[in-house]
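Protein modeling request. Please complete all fields; requests missing the sequence field cannot be processed.
Requester role: graduate student
Desired output: 3D structure, token encoding
Chains: 1
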Amino acid sequence: MPDPTLPDHLGYVVVEGVIGAGKSTLAQMLAARAGGRLVLEEFEENPFLGTFYQDRDRWAFQTQLAFLASRFKQQKALAARDLFHRHVVADYTFDKDRIFAHVTLSGDEVQLYETLFGIMEPSAPVPDLVVYLRSSVDRLLHNVALRGRSYEADMDPAYLTELVDAYDRYFFHYTKSPLLIVDASRIDFVGERATFDELVRQIGNVRGGTAYFNPPRTMQLAF
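Delivered output (223 residues):
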């Protein structure tokens, strides 16, 4: 029996989730399985990211605008037709930028941000499917610690809690495209081949609306 892969109707798939949810890893695995084009967020090119984690209030606006410009540039490139790949898999949606902005910005900064976002948003392509990896704060902190990025070393659990709440509010009302919400807190789609295969099958089965993948107990980790 061949390995499950992305069906033809899913030309543009986006994997989303809070910091540490595993979205980049899953995007890489899906693109490799489908022989598709991989698009990863260029977060390490943001010159303000390190100072943002040290002083959120001071550096939030600069950090957010740098991300907005970078993400818009990538989304414009995505809108061009790709003649060499049947599938494109990305590890973020353009709307992600707005989720973060409403957590980190306030007052006049939010109003200015909304103006810029409103100008850019119509140019961003709409995914054929969004996969939202929903995870607990404890699991996110565990994953962040494992990857060992210096600027994430002192990640504030309260900040992650804010982001989880913001993501939940957004995706529990999301209607732009089909959506699969995955309970990713207790599964290992990297180390467990059967779990990844089942996740790919669940992704391929989504045809519209919002679907949920709550992995059976046999696939869950004792985390």
